[in-house]
Design goal:
about 325 residues; mainly alpha; Farnesyl Diphosphate Synthase
Length: about 325
């Protein structure tokens, strides 16, 4: 099923409003050492998936999406904060096809840029309508904490020999899934959805978040730098315990796994090594397993919507789930 022309047009309109709000939120220019890298990073653009989810969730409960625009942009600013700091921790040189902040400036500048972004996020959040501001702020703040917990667990995993699939899913629920679930939950709350609708929107976001991260893990190896817009194989080079690495341990031969371990330990990666890893993944069905996991999570997300919302209210988020299913970058 392809995305409808109407939905594509809606996304273009909503992205335009989000981008305008984001640039306006960081409109200051002094001191340049703070605002220049902030604006540089925001002007990269990006998919804006999280704010789009917030606005679409607000529409799903029958409210004007503009009510949720400040909260949606606060979530995107928070997301950008995590990206700037993640790039430092992972020593990535590319983000959305451009030099990362710490590469173009310095790690000190990048740390301050991230700090500034989270401050701007809370400033935007304060423009949420007063009747929903308190619950929205509580959910947003808990989201900040859980994302940091997930990032800490992810870094801890790099030093561990074994990570179970259950541990992996717990980590990605915090690191990636939480902010996506916060996006849909807050959209429902600002839109004054009832308790059943808000719970369903959060569950939808959690399922989409799992699918998104497993897809990220897969694309990190099988995509290309031109399409992905960041360093290819960076998770592998950093020794991260991703879905594909955990499945490789389960499914590959002893000799193949020894090679994978040597790559994880060496933290070195070149084109030949990456091609060999991809060949081992294909041979052992790891790519197929990842794709099936993504499909299961997207189906779960869709089922949640259809059990809670009439088809016309569910349609845009259903379309969004198809966009995630077919994501190539």
């Amino acid at each position: 099923m392809d995305l409808t022309a109407e939905f594509k047009a809606t996304l273009v309109e909503l992205r335009r409003e989000v981008d305008t709000y984001l640039i306006k939120s960081a409109g200051a220019s002094y001191p340049a050492s703070l605002y220049q890298p902030i604006n540089y990073f925001l002007e990269f653009g990006g998919k804006r998936l999280r704010p789009l989810l917030t606005l679409l969730s607000c529409r799903a409960v029958g409210c004007d999406y503009r009510e949720a625009l400040p909260a949606a942009c606060a979530i995107e600013l928070l997301h950008n904060f995590t990206l700037v700091h993640d790039d430092i921790m992972d020593q990535d040189s590319l983000r959305r096809g451009q030099a990362t902040v710490h590469t173009r400036w310095s790690e000190s500048v990048a740390i301050l840029t991230g700090d500034g972004l989270i401050g701007l996020a809370y400033r935007a959040l304060m423009n949420t309508p007063s009747e929903t501001l308190q619950p929205v702020t509580k959910i947003f703040t808990e989201g900040v904490i859980r994302v940091c917990e997930g990032q800490a667990i992810d870094k801890d995993f790099e030093g561990m020999e074994e990570v179970s699939i259950a541990e992996y899913f717990d980590m990605i629920q915090k690191k990636t899934g939480e902010l996506i679930a916060v996006s849909t939950e807050i959209g429902g709350i600002v839109g004054k959805g009832d308790a059943v609708q808000v719970r369903a929107l959060r569950a939808f976001g959690e399922a989409i978040g799992r699918a998104f991260q497993v897809q990220d893990d897969l694309l990190d190896i099988i995509s290309s730098e031109e399409v992905l817009g960041k360093d290819l194989g960076s998770d592998l080079a950093q020794g991260k315990k991703t879905f594909v690495i955990i499945k490789l341990k389960e499914l590959s031969s002893a000799e193949e796994w020894e090679f994978i371990q040597s790559v994880l330990r060496s933290r070195r990666l070149d084109k030949d090594i990456l091609e060999r890893v991809k060949a081992i993944m294909r041979k052992n069905g790891v790519i197929d397993q990842a794709e099936r996991q993504i499909q299961r999570d997207v189906r779960q997300a869709q089922d949640i919507l259809l059990k809670t919302f009439p088809p016309d209210r569910a349609e845009e988020l259903m379309q969004f789930s198809l966009m995630i299913l077919n994501r190539k970058y």
